[in-house]
Design brief:
One of its GO terms (molecular function) is phosphoribosylglycinamide formyltransferase activity. This is Phosphoribosylglycinamide formyltransferase. The protein is of the alpha/beta class. It has one domain: Formyl transferase, N-terminal domain (Rossmann fold). Helix content is 39%, strand content 19%. The chain contains six helices and seven strands; from the N terminus they run βαβαβαβαβαββα. The protein is globular, with a radius of gyration of 16 Å.
Length: 180
C-alpha cells in the first residue's frame, strides 16, 4: 500500500507514520510552504510537495492538482495528519473511502473545530483522540478507532499525552488498513 500524508504544521504524526511504515509512506504534501513537516520528510528521504490554495484560481483547481499528484505517486491511502484544510468534493470523489483523518478529541465532541485540543481540555470533556474516514461532512466520517484520555491540569502535559496517544492510535489504524 502506498501512503501519502497531508500535514500543515510540525508533522509529528507524519513522522510517527513514516517511521512505522517506511516502505509504505511515499509522499508528504503540505499546504504550508514553511511547514516543519517538510523538513521531517526530507530528513527521512520521503518525497515532498507543497503548494498553497492561494496559488490556484479556486479550490476545485487546487484539489485537481492534489488528485493529479496522488495519481502520479500511485497513492492508495491518504492520511490527514494536522492538515488544516477541509477536503472538498473533487478530492473526496477521486479518493472516496481512501482518506482518513486524526482528530484531537473524542468525537463527536468538538467536531469541526480547529482548536479541539484546547477546547476539550478547557471543557474537561470530549478528551481523547479519534481516527475516522473522511466524508463530505467535517469530522463526521465513520469512526475507525477512538481513545479516551484523562484530564491533566497542565495543558502542556495533556498535549504531550495526546500527541503520544495520537501516534500510537494512528499507527494501529494504518497497520490494520495495510493488512486488509
Amino acid at each position: 500500500m502506498r501512503i501519502a500524508v497531508f500535514a500543515s504544521g510540525s508533522g509529528s504524526n507524519f513522522e510517527a507514520l513514516a517511521q512505522a511504515f517506511p516502505a509504505e509512506v511515499q509522499l508528504l504534501f503540505s499546504d504550508k510552504i514553511d511547514a516543519f513537516a517538510l523538513q521531517r520528510a526530507q530528513q527521512l528521504k520521503i518525497a515532498t510537495v507543497s503548494f498553497t490554495l492561494k496559488s490556484f484560481a479556486d479550490k476545485q483547481s487546487y484539489e485537481e492538482a492534489l488528485v493529479a499528484l496522488l495519481r502520479e505517486h500511485q497513492i492508495d491511502l491518504v492520511c490527514l495528519a494536522g492538515y488544516m484544510k477541509i477536503v472538498g468534493p473533487t478530492l473526496l470523489h477521486a479518493y472516496e473511502g481512501r482518506i482518513i483523518n486524526i482528530h484531537p478529541s473524542y468525537l463527536p465532541a468538538f467536531a469541526g473545530s480547529a482548536h479541539a485540543l484546547e477546547e476539550s481540555w478547557q471543557a474537561q470533556e470530549g478528551l481523547g483522540i479519534t481516527v475516522h474516514w473522511v466524508d463530505s461532512g467535517v469530522d463526521t466520517g465513520k469512526i475507525l478507532a477512538q481513545q479516551q484520555l484523562d484530564y491533566h491540569p497542565e495543558l502542556a502535559e495533556y498535549e504531550k499525552k495526546l500527541h503520544q496517544g495520537e501516534h500510537e492510535l494512528y499507527i494501529k489504524v494504518v497497520e490494520e488498513l495495510i493488512k486488509k
